[in-house]
Specification:
The protein is mainly beta. Helices cover 12% and strands 31% of the residues. It has helices at 26-29, 57-68, and strands at 14-17, 20-22, 40-42, 83-87, 92-101, 104-110, 121-126, 128-129, 135-136.
């Protein structure tokens, strides 16, 4: 299955696995030639794949702030201001990209009217796109 032509040019690496687009880690790119793990893989224009996150809390916190949350011009083709669809647990809705980082993008989406809150929007961190074109955590 050759989907490399469909992978977006991006500052972070891009990969497909069973129709889902995401940015692979160093551990996954080691299997780039093994179709059981990654069907196609394209290196990022600015960044290599991220190393795996540490498990100790202090090391993880440093890793998140300094590696995963590093601002990037785009995440898998998403740019600030793009309007996308996001996949919630059981529904799909609109969202607007408000930030892009090495590990994903922050998306603001509208909330339904409620007597319980005055909030009109919430934010969601997305890092993958499914085969229907919707983004999800």
């Amino acid at each position: 299955m050759d989907q490399i032509a469909d992978l977006p040019a991006s500052s972070v690496p891009a990969a497909f696995d069973r129709g889902h687009l995401y940015s692979p880690t160093l551990a996954l790119t080691a299997h780039a030639l093994d179709d059981r793990y990654i069907y196609d893989y394209r290196p990022g224009d600015l960044y290599e794949p991220m190393p795996a996150s540490p498990t100790a809390p202090k090391e993880w916190s440093w890793w998140w702030r300094n590696i995963a949350a590093a601002p990037v011009p785009d995440f898998l083709g998403l740019r600030v201001g793009d309007h996308i669809t996001i996949q919630h647990v059981t529904s799909v809705g609109p969202g607007e990209v408000i930030a892009t980082e090495r590990a994903g993008a922050t998306v603001r989406y509208p909330l339904p009217e409620s007597d319980l809150t005055t909030r009109t929007h919430a934010e969601m961190y997305v890092s993958r796109r499914n085969d229907a074109g919707h983004w999800y955590p």
